[in-house]
């Protein structure tokens, strides 16, 4: 009987302590400090309004008042850091070649019309700007705008060159970088621990495990940004009637497990910003902010701006 009482009291004490620290993490952890807080984030510069990852897209988003630009980086054969999503140029330029096999001067221009990845049956018609930009061009054009960099390949030279550019343009407090790969994030952190990093996918899974076992409030976190998809948007990108029962169940389960207001509130209280992607309609905008997301990543920066103004959503700092 005494053993049962001991176990019960121990478990009760653990649960109560975990619940307290989940609500009040400052009792155990010092809140992380970052130089910016982003609510409005333009995915690839706003891929639904201008050709993705072009200077025209970035300029449009910044003039609109976006809080952050999200972009992707690769390395050319002559070791130039370029802003482009795919490693192969076929989708974006019509030329079937890998960026790493071409010099910057050899890169073809974008196609005039590109599909919007996160909007069903949607295409963006481009203007005159079809050039693949250099990362340094983006840094020079927008010295005060926070930028979210997805390091697309596991390449030590690419990681070092991005870090060198961040240092050169004095952007260590205005940049966040990473990838879904934990190996790449670890290399980024090792190369320059002063640049904030994103949670990798394995770390997101670990985060969820810690959250659901009650251990999260006790564990220190090195990451400053959680950037995750809202799983429910899959049903808007694919025909639900063509999804199998198991696919629908996995989507539902992932949404239930990931979209937790108590998790987002805890991370926010610890100074970890939570970004949900890629949301392109008002229903998802509203849900994300109701869940406590710090910011929303969108292909349609104008639509998100109008929503935020209509809802009187507080501006970022």
UniProtKB/TrEMBL annotation:
The keyword Membrane applies. InterPro entries: GDPD-Related (IPR052271), GP_PDE_dom (IPR030395), PLC-like_Pdiesterase_TIM-brl (IPR017946). PROSITE patterns: GP_PDE. SUPFAM superfamilies: PLC-like phosphodiesterases. GO terms for cellular component: endoplasmic reticulum membrane. Its main location: membrane. Keywords: Hydrolase, Lipid metabolism, Membrane, Transmembrane, Transmembrane helix. It is found in: Membrane. It comes from the Eukaryota. Gene3D superfamilies: Phosphatidylinositol (PI) phosphodiesterase (3.20.20.190). GO terms for biological process: glycerophospholipid catabolic process; N-acylethanolamine metabolic process. The chain crosses the membrane at residues 6-28, 204-221. GO terms for molecular function: phosphatidylcholine lysophospholipase activity; phosphoric diester hydrolase activity. Belongs to the glycerophosphoryl diester phosphodiesterase family. This is Lysophospholipase D GDPD1. It comes from Chanos chanos (Milkfish). The lineage of its organism: Eukaryota, Metazoa, Chordata, Craniata, Vertebrata.
